Amino acid sequence: MALVGGLLYSWEVPAYFRWLDQRVPSSATASLGAKWMRAALSLAYFNPLWIARHYVFLRFFSGHPEQITWDLVPLATRSFVLNIPVSLLVNYYIQNRVSAEWRFVVSAVFSGVMAVYYALSAAWL
């Protein structure tokens, strides 16, 4: 999983954040709507399909490839929906209060916390 994070996520997430910076620039003078748009677009990136892909990696690297089924999509959707309030607020903070050079690091820390949540939610949901 660390290899996936180091190779795939470390390229993919900063690329998305750069795209987001081009579409909805971050600034102290940005409107409240623009700030929430940044948070919503960040949340949309980490959508149920992204979570399902994360579940696939978890199943694969934990030695349970037989558990990789389409059932992961509804599980990921439930995890995503239950997490929206927290994730939206944290993404608002990351996208509007954290400087661009630290945004990936802070997002990675939050993603690490969320990875634990996703693993637990797979057992709970």
Automatic annotation (TrEMBL):
Record key words, sorted: Membrane, Transmembrane, Transmembrane helix
Transmembrane portions of the chain: 75-94, 101-120
Domain of life: Bacteria
Name of the protein in its database record: GtrA-like protein domain-containing protein
Organism for this UniProt entry: Hymenobacter glacieicola
